[in-house]
Amino acid sequence: MSTEPSAKVALLGPGSWGTALGLLLCRNGHRVRLWGHEAAQVEALRRDSENTQFLPGFPFPSTMMATDSLDEALEDATDCLVVVPSHAFRQVVTQLASRLPPEMGVAWATKGLEPATGQLLHTVAQGVLDNRPLAVVSGPSFATEVAKGLPTAVSVASNDGRFATRTARLLHGGRFRAYTSEDMIGVEICGAAKNVLAIATGIADGLGFGANTRAALITRGLAELIRIGTALGGRPETFTGLAGIGDLVLTCTDNQSRNRRLGLALASGQSVDEAKAVIGQEVEGVITAQAIHRLSERLGIEMPIASQVYRVLCEQVSPQEATRALLEREPKPEFG
Ligand SMILES: NC(=O)c1ccc[n+]([C@@H]2O[C@H](COP(=O)([O-])OP(=O)(O)OC[C@H]3O[C@@H](n4cnc5c(N)ncnc54)[C@H](O)[C@@H]3O)[C@@H](O)[C@H]2O)c1
Ligand SMILES: O=P(O)(O)OC[C@H](O)CO
Question: Which residues form the signal peptide (predicted)?
Answer without folding.
Answer: none
